[in-house]
Design brief:
Strand content: 15-25%
Number of domains: 3
Helix content: 40-55%
CATH architecture of the largest domain: 3-Layer(aba) Sandwich
Distance between the termini: 52 Å
CATH class of the largest domain: Alpha Beta
Number of helices: 10
Strand order of the largest sheet: 4-3-5-12-6
Mean pLDDT: 84
Number of strands: 12
Low-confidence stretches: none
Order of helices and strands: HHHEEHEHEEEEHEHEHEHEEH
Length: 307
């Protein structure tokens, strides 16, 4: 084991404040995460800068931007915190305590696909306790050690910081409730434009992309767009007869099978960016993590085969 001189280490409390501020690009958001005041974070960062003898942030109005030295230092500090979190997980895995595995999952994926299957993992791995957090926050803004496995869209992942793998890809079709379809017969894509179209803020522009794939112009000012902050709310609104949503296959297979939703048009199917699992590289060899990832990939493979 290499010998560490604590005199060579910067103030550790200051390191926590710096890492959080660098990740968020904000002293205020770092303070919220650490449950301290903005001034406390500012003082800790100043203490670290005095210790280093150089500026780590440029203050631009109310914003803070990492300097070149600050960016390089932030990358190393974040990696070191990740290593400490991984070592702590391995340490706890060698005890008789239950291993808690924290999952950070996109809300719609969690509700529509993952949750109905989690009991199968729990039954075969009773020594692992699952903690599920739903979020669409960029993973780079989440402190190391605050999640073990995440599910995000592939395009949202910084692959140099994470190990990732594709779960499956969605194909989107317009869907609505049976009663709404009966009251508003649809024969071609153009028939959708006078009707209420449901859209989530997290999938901005999805209807324009679908209409383009159908050879139609996108939505216009006359289109009755009804907006929701989460996609699962838009799907629920479609189920409740409020209009058409772009329903993702395979996440709505059960709704279609049980008649809660119908898809009047079978084409075009708009392919979305794949769902991926992601783990920080520093924690990728954690036995509980590897077991869950292997189970998730097996479940996704079985699901794809059933389609």
């Amino acid at each position: 084991m290499s010998e560490v001189s604590f005199q060579a280490l910067p103030p550790l409390t200051a390191l926590r404040s710096f890492e959080a501020a660098a990740r968020h690009g904000s002293f205020s958001r770092a303070a919220d995460e650490l449950c301290v005041t903005h001034g406390a974070v500012s003082r800790q960062v100043k203490l670290l800068e005095d210790w280093a003898g150089l500026a780590l942030f440029d203050r631009v109005g109310r914003r803070v931007v990492l300097t070149g030295a600050g960016r390089r230092f932030a990358d190393r500090v974040s990696s070191a915190f990740g290593d400490i979190a991984a070592a702590a997980r391995v340490l706890r895995a060698n005890t008789n305590t239950t291993r808690v595995l924290t999952l950070n999952i996109l809300p719609t994926f969690a509700m529509r696909w993952l949750l109905p299957r989690l009991s199968k993992f729990q039954f075969t791995h009773p020594q692992i306790e699952l903690r599920l957090v739903t979020s669409d926050q960029p993973l780079e803004r989440i402190a190391p050690g605050h999640f073990d496995i995440a599910v995000r869209r592939k395009s949202a992942l910084a692959t140099q910081e994470f190990r990732t793998g594709i779960i499956f890809t969605e194909d989107e079709l317009p869907v609505c409730s049976p009663a709404f379809a009966e009251a508003n017969p649809i024969r071609n894509p153009a028939d959708l434009k006078p009707l209420p179209l449901l859209v989530a803020d997290t999938r901005e522009g999805s209807w324009d992309r679908w209409f383009a794939a159908a050879g139609e112009r996108g939505v216009s000012d006359d289109t009755a767009l009804r907006r929701f902050d989460h996609f699962y709310l838009a799907l629920q609104a479609a189920t409740d007869g409020l209009g058409f949503a772009l329903g993702p296959l395979p996440l709505i297979e059960e709704d279609l099978a049980q008649g809660r939703l119908v898809a009047p048009l079978s084409e075009p199917k708009l392919s979305a960016v794949p769902y991926c699992w992601a783990v920080r590289s520093s924690g990728a060899e954690d036995p509980a993590v590897t077991q869950f990832v292997a189970w998730l990939e097996d479940e996704a493979q079985d699901f794809r085969r059933s389609q």
